[in-house]
UniProtKB/TrEMBL annotation:
The keyword Cell membrane applies. Pfam families: PAP2 (PF01569). This is Phosphatase PAP2 family protein. InterPro entries: PAP2/HPO (IPR000326), PAP2/HPO_sf (IPR036938). GO terms for molecular function: hydrolase activity.
Length: 221
């Protein structure tokens, strides 16, 4: 449920933008899946990950951690802002950040159902997770996207948004270049992270709108 003008609900949520991001990830996954092996070969060769996959992979971990810190910073700055419109963002940002946990749980569950082998195993790279640590979808990507959405929602500050975008790109590139994921894994992670954000935000927003309307009706009596 998306609130109308003057209705209670979460503030400053780019509903259409989140769904466009989810759709873009899904379309990219469909396009990339038939070319999974050559794309991964090209990506790992480009950054030389065949000999340094673990080092490249750590960039993804650092990117997710950085996005978490940016989301926390954006929420804190909005909560303390003297500007009413910006202050209203903090609750929406907090809900969006919580969606990252949902994205992680769903992605981890899907991995154990699909059980896709990672490209580093297929390509024989030295740095590769165990065979029972499956590939599809990328939970690093799903979490990173949800956190990036939280940053955008929580703060209107351009420098925060740009930094979040750079960290997100670093996560996406590192997951493919390290051989940890196929391109379609990462693309599906984008779709999953955006979809998790939308569903969690919409659910909390629906509750907020219903509670606000009930309160307004009670005050009118």
């Amino acid at each position: 449920m998306v609130p109308g003008a003057g209705e209670p609900g979460l503030a400053c949520v780019p509903w259409a933008g989140i769904m466009v991001l989810a759709a873009a990830g899904a379309v990219l996954a469909l396009v990339a899946a038939p070319f999974a092996l050559p794309l991964s070969e090209a990506a790992t060769a480009w950054l030389g990950a065949g000999g340094s996959g673990a080092g490249v992979d750590r960039l993804g971990d650092a990117g997710v951690a950085g996005l978490g810190l940016l989301a926390a910073l954006g929420i804190t700055l909005s909560r303390r802002s003297p500007i009413g419109e910006e202050r209203a963002r903090w609750a929406s940002g907090l809900v969006a950040a919580a969606a990252a946990a949902v994205a992680f749980v769903v992605a981890s569950g899907l991995k154990n159902v699909v059980r896709e082998i990672r490209p580093c195993s297929e390509l024989g790279l030295s740095a590769c997770p165990p065979l029972n640590d499956y590939s599809w979808p990328s939970n690093h990507t799903a979490v990173a996207v949800a956190l990036a959405v939280a940053v955008v929602i929580a703060s209107p500050r351009l420098w925060l948004r740009l930094l979040a975008g750079l960290l997100l790109v670093m996560v996406l590139a590192s997951r493919v270049a390290s051989g940890a994921h196929w391109v379609h894994d990462v693309a599906c992670g984008v779709a999953l992270g955006a979809l998790a954000s939308f569903v969690v935000l919409a659910a909390v927003n629906a509750v907020s709108v219903a509670v606000g309307r009930r309160r307004a009706a009670g005050e009118a009596l």
